[in-house]
From TrEMBL:
<keyword id="KW-1133">Transmembrane helix</keyword>
<feature type="compositionally biased region" description="Basic and acidic residues">
    <location>
        <begin position="139"/>
        <end position="149"/>
    </location>
</feature>
<feature type="compositionally biased region" description="Basic and acidic residues">
    <location>
        <begin position="84"/>
        <end position="93"/>
    </location>
</feature>
<feature type="transmembrane region" description="Helical">
    <location>
        <begin position="154"/>
        <end position="174"/>
    </location>
</feature>
<keyword id="KW-0812">Transmembrane</keyword>
<keyword id="KW-0472">Membrane</keyword>
<feature type="domain" description="Peptidoglycan binding-like">
    <location>
        <begin position="208"/>
        <end position="259"/>
    </location>
</feature>
<dbReference type="Pfam" id="PF01471">
    <property type="entry name" value="PG_binding_1"/>
</dbReference>
<dbReference type="InterPro" id="IPR002477">
    <property type="entry name" value="Peptidoglycan-bd-like"/>
</dbReference>
<feature type="region of interest" description="Disordered">
    <location>
        <begin position="84"/>
        <end position="149"/>
    </location>
</feature>
<feature type="compositionally biased region" description="Low complexity">
    <location>
        <begin position="114"/>
        <end position="123"/>
    </location>
</feature>
<dbReference type="InterPro" id="IPR036365">
    <property type="entry name" value="PGBD-like_sf"/>
</dbReference>
<dbReference type="Pfam" id="PF13560">
    <property type="entry name" value="HTH_31"/>
</dbReference>
<dbReference type="InterPro" id="IPR036366">
    <property type="entry name" value="PGBDSf"/>
</dbReference>
<dbReference type="InterPro" id="IPR023346">
    <property type="entry name" value="Lysozyme-like_dom_sf"/>
</dbReference>
<protein>
    <recommendedName>
        <fullName>Peptidoglycan binding-like domain-containing protein</fullName>
    </recommendedName>
</protein>
Amino acid sequence: MVASPHAEKFAAHLRMLKDRSRRGYDRLGKEAGVSGSSLHRYCSGLSVPADYRVVHAFAKVCGASAEELRELHRLWALADTDRDAPAVPVKDDPEPEPDEPAAPLQASPGPDEPAAGPAQASPSPGPDDVTPPEIAPDETGKPRRSRVPEKWSSRWAVLAAVVAVVLVAGFVWMPDSGTGVTPPAAGDRLLYSRACKSVTMGQHDECVREVQTLLARAKGKLAIDGDFGPETLRRLTAFQVLAGLPATSVADDATKKALYEQKVSMTTWSPAEVAKRVREVFVEDPDTAVAIARCASFLDPLWVLPNTNGSRNWGVFQISDARLRELDGTPLRAFDPEWNIKAAHRLWSARHDFHDWPSCEAALKEKAKS
């Protein structure tokens, strides 16, 4: 079975970090809070971890830089989207037996179409679908000239003309994605055009760039590069929560409207302000608490991390959906750094340790030993 290209790139990035650390899987696993055999599967491309925190902890113990962590998160998100896609077996199609003609190829049915049964007969071909037979020679022995090619040529000409018209019409509204086509003017609200009907993860075009530009105007911190990756996903999701919209992580109609209205501000605490407040709340162990928060969210109050089961983690201490329900919280409250830090302290108080952040805690303990 063959892993997806995204999974292969993700595994290659993990192997690079592992090789550079010059440590074995068992040792790295102990430091990252995961088994060595699991790390071997991840680095070999045999599986993709369901929880990004495992990846983050592994990368941190390998000494990954901030830029490498961002790239690793991007690769993990892309590999994670391929998790449910069936792997493709690599094998050669067997040649048909010489006494049996090869079965004709049939198109696979779409998701809404029933598959044809083994005894279902194919529709009879129409007169224009039949391949012309060999042309018999005339009475002089010369081959007769067939009129079929002329008929086909005229049909192909008409088809080519129709395709050309469709393409020209499409270029009128398609955004510029490196093809030299000029997008609508800035005042035309590009996101309302047919070209930007859907703006989602993995997209790379001027529609994404427009979303990023509007998020930046709302004081969201992100790169404006036209690439809808994990960074844009996090910022768009945070914007939706702050705007009181469903956190779909997709630029739908309601989100586009809110982006253009510019009534939502994504201004929040700086990392220094977050660290200061964490120390004030976690008076029992301030240094460890700051390290845990930095491991979980880079001290970003609007940090969002999606999980493969559909749940998400929110805010400074990356409090999960399940924990939010227990704490009578919401994603919006989790984005309030004051509430988030105090809620994390409530979780810590249950056992006076950081058991709710196992990967970060394990990484810190191993780092302290070395």
